[in-house]
């Protein structure tokens, strides 16, 4: 299968599996850094599989003046809440029995030890973490102005079912809930580990949205 030359994405909190599939099949990953902050998106949340089903864990942000567009790059994380500790506990509770959680746990702890005041910078670090662990190495670049890319907007949207269906893989709570999607790329990493690359390779660069 031929790779897509370029994929534009909005930096997200541990990009989801559908974004990873598209990223694997691109030559150049372009981060949109000139957009405005939008609620109900993966900019400040990711979805994991827990014993109770899908759970969205969200990063608290410092809210700015309402009623006006706020640049995404200016959004700061609210560290008055112990969100990192809570998120690490939620991730461990969800995936400690997965085949590869312990293998990646120390690297994950080192990532969460970083202090980034900017939500966008934190999300770029999270994306880099996933790409490095999965050994996905596209050329990385950044937009010089806002692109308004439709696919990028759909990939970042967390509200509603806008994602195509991809092939199932073994998940920790699959016997209880069936195969859950869309989920954060952490789910793929902890369940498949090094085999994640084979999974991503086997999926078409999914362009159609339900």
TrEMBL record:
InterPro entries: WbqC (IPR014985). It holds the Pfam family WbqC. It comes from Nonlabens tegetincola. This is WbqC-like protein.
């Amino acid at each position: 299968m031929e790779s897509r030359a370029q994929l534009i994405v909005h930096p997200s909190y541990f990009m989801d599996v559908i974004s990873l599939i598209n990223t694997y099949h691109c030559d150049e990953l372009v981060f949109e850094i000139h957009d405005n902050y939008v609620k109900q998106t993966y900019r400040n949340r990711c979805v994991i599989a827990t014993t109770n089903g899908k759970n969205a864990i969200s990063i608290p942000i410092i809210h700015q003046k309402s009623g006006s567009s706020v640049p995404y790059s200016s959004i700061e994380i609210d560290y008055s809440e112990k969100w990192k500790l809570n998120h690490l506990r939620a991730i461990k509770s969800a995936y400690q029995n997965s085949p590869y959680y312990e293998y990646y746990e120390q690297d994950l702890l080192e990532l969460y030890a970083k202090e980034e005041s900017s939500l966008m910078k934190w999300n770029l670090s999270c994306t880099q973490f996933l790409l490095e662990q999965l050994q996905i190495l596209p050329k990385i670049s950044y937009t010089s102005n806002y692109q308004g890319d439709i696919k990028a907007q759909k990939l970042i949207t967390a509200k509603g079912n806008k994602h195509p269906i991809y092939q199932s893989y073994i998940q920790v709570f699959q016997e209880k809930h069936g195969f859950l999607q869309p989920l954060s790329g952490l789910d793929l990493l902890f369940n498949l580990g090094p085999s994640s690359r084979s999974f991503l390779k086997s999926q078409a660069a999914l362009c159609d949205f339900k």
